[in-house]
Design goal:
Helices cover 24% and strands 31% of the residues. The chain contains 5 helices and 10 strands.
Amino acid sequence: MELMIDYITSLDGYGAADGWPGWWGLEDREYLDWLAENSPDQRTLLMGANTYRLMHSFAASQKESVDALDTASKIVFSNTLSEPLEWENSQLVRGDAVEAVRELKKHSERPLSTLGSLSLSRSLLAAGLVDRFRVVVFPVITGKTGQERIYGGYPDVVLDLVETRTFPGGAQLLDYRPRVLDAPLPPGPGSA
């Protein structure tokens, strides 16, 4: 089954910023409609303990707007959380997340997608398990206030573009097929 890493970022690669609202306050109706069409309840969401805590708290405080997160099937990889998990439709998995996801890809009946979870996503990508890498880049630079630098510690990756879309508010959807590299690519034809 397909596994997708799914992020929203600022232009400078941060997943959040201190003092800024969700989506950096730049979401528009077309983007929100696209989110609804690509609802997380159509996939099995994979997350680590920190993302689980953050998103469960967010979902509890925004009940009317995040029902799809409640109904989505969620798998949480953690050696620190305890069962039963409070958030409905959540399953706790202990141990090696990479091996567990490798098995999920073989047996899952639904597409798999990360929800944030930077270190989990990084380890799944490095293990060659990621089929798609989708990011929505918001037109803001949060150099002073940015938090959760997304790409630090990532392997070198070539991204083959599958789809792109620009929303009216300026956010860019970029959907890729990733290829993890053992070494940088050699210079191409015509390079000096």
